[in-house]
Amino acid sequence: MKKEERPLTRLEIEAIIKKLGGPDKVREILKAGQQFVDPTWKKVMVGTLRSAEVARRVILAQNSVSDQADQILEQIKFDGFIKTINLTLVKVKSLNFLRDEKATTERVMINAMALGLLPCPPEAALQLLLQHPRALPEGESALVGMNPISPARVRTKLIFKISRNSLGTDTGHPQACWHDKHQWVFVYPEP
Protein backbone atom coordinates (compact mmCIF):
# COMPACT_ATOMS: atom_id res chain seq x y z
CA MET A 1 0.00 0.00 0.00
CA LYS A 2 1.41 3.38 -1.06
CA LYS A 3 1.95 5.89 1.73
CA GLU A 4 -0.06 9.08 1.24
CA GLU A 5 2.15 12.10 0.57
CA ARG A 6 1.69 15.16 2.72
CA PRO A 7 2.90 18.70 2.14
CA LEU A 8 6.29 19.59 3.62
CA THR A 9 6.24 21.57 6.84
CA ARG A 10 7.99 24.92 7.16
CA LEU A 11 10.68 23.32 9.34
CA GLU A 12 11.29 20.58 6.74
CA ILE A 13 11.60 23.18 3.96
CA GLU A 14 14.04 25.23 6.04
CA ALA A 15 16.10 22.09 6.76
CA ILE A 16 16.25 21.28 3.02
CA ILE A 17 17.33 24.84 2.19
CA LYS A 18 20.06 24.63 4.83
CA LYS A 19 21.26 21.24 3.54
CA LEU A 20 21.43 22.60 -0.02
CA GLY A 21 23.69 25.43 1.13
CA GLY A 22 21.27 28.24 1.98
CA PRO A 23 18.87 30.48 0.06
CA ASP A 24 21.50 31.71 -2.44
CA LYS A 25 22.42 28.14 -3.40
CA VAL A 26 18.72 27.26 -3.83
CA ARG A 27 18.30 30.26 -6.16
CA GLU A 28 21.39 29.11 -8.10
CA ILE A 29 19.96 25.58 -8.41
CA LEU A 30 16.59 26.88 -9.61
CA LYS A 31 18.29 29.18 -12.11
CA ALA A 32 20.42 26.31 -13.44
CA GLY A 33 17.25 24.28 -13.98
CA GLN A 34 16.11 26.96 -16.41
CA GLN A 35 18.89 25.96 -18.80
CA PHE A 36 16.49 23.58 -20.51
CA VAL A 37 14.43 26.30 -22.21
CA ASP A 38 15.41 24.60 -25.49
CA PRO A 39 16.31 21.15 -24.21
CA THR A 40 16.85 19.45 -27.54
CA TRP A 41 20.43 19.88 -28.63
CA LYS A 42 20.25 17.23 -31.35
CA LYS A 43 17.69 14.65 -32.46
CA VAL A 44 18.92 11.23 -33.53
CA MET A 45 17.21 8.15 -34.85
CA VAL A 46 18.35 4.97 -33.10
CA GLY A 47 17.61 1.37 -33.99
CA THR A 48 18.89 1.49 -37.57
CA LEU A 49 22.21 -0.25 -36.85
CA ARG A 50 21.44 -3.97 -36.71
CA SER A 51 24.71 -5.37 -35.37
CA ALA A 52 28.21 -4.54 -34.18
CA GLU A 53 29.56 -5.43 -37.64
CA VAL A 54 27.22 -2.97 -39.38
CA ALA A 55 27.93 -0.28 -36.78
CA ARG A 56 31.70 -0.75 -37.11
CA ARG A 57 31.61 -0.61 -40.92
CA VAL A 58 29.43 2.53 -41.02
CA ILE A 59 31.26 4.38 -38.23
CA LEU A 60 34.75 3.59 -39.57
CA ALA A 61 33.80 4.92 -43.01
CA GLN A 62 33.67 8.46 -41.57
CA ASN A 63 35.30 8.40 -38.13
CA SER A 64 38.25 7.12 -36.16
CA VAL A 65 37.40 4.56 -33.48
CA SER A 66 39.63 3.76 -30.50
CA ASP A 67 40.41 0.11 -29.73
CA GLN A 68 38.37 0.21 -26.52
CA ALA A 69 35.38 1.82 -28.29
CA ASP A 70 35.61 -0.94 -30.89
CA GLN A 71 35.53 -3.54 -28.09
CA ILE A 72 32.46 -1.89 -26.54
CA LEU A 73 30.66 -2.15 -29.89
CA GLU A 74 30.74 -5.94 -29.44
CA GLN A 75 28.86 -5.62 -26.13
CA ILE A 76 26.00 -3.39 -27.38
CA LYS A 77 22.64 -5.04 -27.87
CA PHE A 78 21.18 -3.66 -31.10
CA ASP A 79 17.43 -4.22 -30.76
CA GLY A 80 16.35 -2.80 -34.13
CA PHE A 81 13.53 -0.80 -32.51
CA ILE A 82 13.63 2.41 -34.55
CA LYS A 83 12.77 5.63 -32.74
CA THR A 84 13.86 9.25 -32.62
CA ILE A 85 15.26 10.58 -29.35
CA ASN A 86 16.12 14.09 -28.20
CA LEU A 87 19.63 14.60 -26.87
CA THR A 88 20.72 17.45 -24.65
CA LEU A 89 24.28 18.57 -23.89
CA VAL A 90 24.99 19.71 -20.33
CA LYS A 91 28.11 20.85 -18.53
CA VAL A 92 28.90 19.25 -15.18
CA LYS A 93 28.62 22.61 -13.43
CA SER A 94 24.93 22.88 -14.39
CA LEU A 95 24.03 19.60 -12.70
CA ASN A 96 23.41 21.23 -9.32
CA PHE A 97 26.02 19.80 -7.02
CA LEU A 98 25.82 20.53 -3.32
CA ARG A 99 28.63 22.46 -1.69
CA ASP A 100 31.69 20.19 -1.25
CA GLU A 101 30.03 17.42 -3.27
CA LYS A 102 32.34 15.79 -5.81
CA ALA A 103 31.17 15.49 -9.41
CA THR A 104 31.62 11.72 -9.66
CA THR A 105 30.16 9.65 -12.48
CA GLU A 106 27.55 8.33 -10.06
CA ARG A 107 26.53 11.85 -8.93
CA VAL A 108 26.48 13.16 -12.51
CA MET A 109 24.01 10.41 -13.44
CA ILE A 110 21.87 10.90 -10.32
CA ASN A 111 21.76 14.69 -10.67
CA ALA A 112 20.96 14.46 -14.39
CA MET A 113 18.04 12.13 -13.62
CA ALA A 114 16.86 14.52 -10.90
CA LEU A 115 16.59 17.17 -13.66
CA GLY A 116 14.43 14.79 -15.69
CA LEU A 117 17.16 13.59 -18.05
CA LEU A 118 17.61 9.92 -18.95
CA PRO A 119 20.66 7.79 -19.77
CA CYS A 120 21.43 7.42 -23.47
CA PRO A 121 21.23 4.09 -25.22
CA PRO A 122 24.83 3.34 -26.32
CA GLU A 123 23.76 3.50 -29.97
CA ALA A 124 22.99 7.22 -29.49
CA ALA A 125 26.74 7.98 -29.48
CA LEU A 126 27.18 6.20 -32.80
CA GLN A 127 24.14 7.84 -34.38
CA LEU A 128 25.22 11.27 -33.14
CA LEU A 129 28.52 10.88 -35.02
CA LEU A 130 26.74 9.63 -38.15
CA GLN A 131 23.79 12.03 -38.23
CA HIS A 132 25.51 15.15 -36.82
CA PRO A 133 29.23 14.86 -37.64
CA ARG A 134 29.87 18.51 -36.74
CA ALA A 135 27.76 18.56 -33.56
CA LEU A 136 30.75 19.50 -31.44
CA PRO A 137 33.21 22.27 -32.30
CA GLU A 138 36.74 21.23 -33.23
CA GLY A 139 38.71 20.35 -30.09
CA GLU A 140 35.65 19.72 -27.88
CA SER A 141 34.39 16.37 -26.67
CA ALA A 142 31.42 15.04 -24.73
CA LEU A 143 30.89 12.04 -22.50
CA VAL A 144 27.82 9.95 -23.16
CA GLY A 145 25.59 9.52 -20.11
CA MET A 146 24.97 5.80 -20.46
CA ASN A 147 25.19 2.62 -18.44
CA PRO A 148 28.91 1.74 -18.45
CA ILE A 149 29.97 -1.29 -20.47
CA SER A 150 32.87 -3.68 -19.85
CA PRO A 151 34.73 -4.74 -22.98
CA ALA A 152 35.45 -8.46 -23.29
CA ARG A 153 38.34 -9.62 -21.09
CA VAL A 154 38.56 -6.20 -19.37
CA ARG A 155 37.27 -5.50 -15.88
CA THR A 156 37.04 -1.72 -16.32
CA LYS A 157 33.64 -0.22 -17.11
CA LEU A 158 33.68 2.34 -19.90
CA ILE A 159 31.42 4.96 -21.45
CA PHE A 160 31.63 6.45 -24.92
CA LYS A 161 33.39 9.76 -25.45
CA ILE A 162 32.68 11.55 -28.70
CA SER A 163 34.40 14.38 -30.50
CA ARG A 164 34.33 15.56 -34.07
CA ASN A 165 34.98 12.50 -36.27
CA SER A 166 36.08 10.37 -33.34
CA LEU A 167 34.57 7.70 -31.11
CA GLY A 168 36.53 6.94 -27.96
CA THR A 169 35.93 5.92 -24.37
CA ASP A 170 36.50 7.16 -20.86
CA THR A 171 36.08 5.57 -17.47
CA GLY A 172 32.59 4.77 -16.32
CA HIS A 173 33.76 4.04 -12.78
CA PRO A 174 31.14 5.41 -10.34
CA GLN A 175 33.74 7.31 -8.29
CA ALA A 176 35.63 8.89 -11.22
CA CYS A 177 35.63 12.69 -10.80
CA TRP A 178 34.81 15.24 -13.51
CA HIS A 179 35.59 18.94 -13.86
CA ASP A 180 32.96 21.66 -14.24
CA LYS A 181 33.78 22.07 -17.94
CA HIS A 182 33.17 18.43 -18.89
CA GLN A 183 30.14 18.02 -21.14
CA TRP A 184 27.71 15.13 -20.99
CA VAL A 185 25.04 13.99 -23.43
CA PHE A 186 21.73 12.72 -22.04
CA VAL A 187 18.28 11.94 -23.41
CA TYR A 188 15.75 14.69 -22.88
CA PRO A 189 12.41 12.85 -22.83
CA GLU A 190 9.44 14.07 -24.82
CA PRO A 191 7.00 16.03 -22.63
Explain the overall architecture.
The protein is of the alpha/beta class and 191 residues long. It has 2 domains: 1-37, no CATH class; 38-187, no CATH class. Helices cover 31% and strands 19% of the residues. It has 6 helices and 7 strands. The chain has a 7-stranded mixed beta sheet with strand order 1-3-7-4-5-6-2.
Q: What would the principal axes of the Cα set say about the shape?
A: elongated
Please state roughly what percent of the residues sit in beta strands, choosing from under 5%, 5-15%, 15-25%, 25-35%, 35-45% or over 45%. 15-25%
Report the count of strand segments.
7
List the strand order in the largest sheet.
Answer: 1-3-7-4-5-6-2
Percent in helix? 25-40%
Q: Which ranges are low-confidence, i.e. pLDDT below 50, for 5 or more consecutive residues?
A: none
Structural class: alpha/beta
Structurally, how many domains make up the residues?
2
Number of helices: 6
**What distance lies between the first and last C-alpha atoms, to the nearest angstrom?**
29 Å
Average pLDDT, rounded to a whole number, is 84
Radius of gyration: 19 Å
Largest sheet: 7 strands, mixed
Helices and strands, in order, run as: HHEHEHEHHEEEE
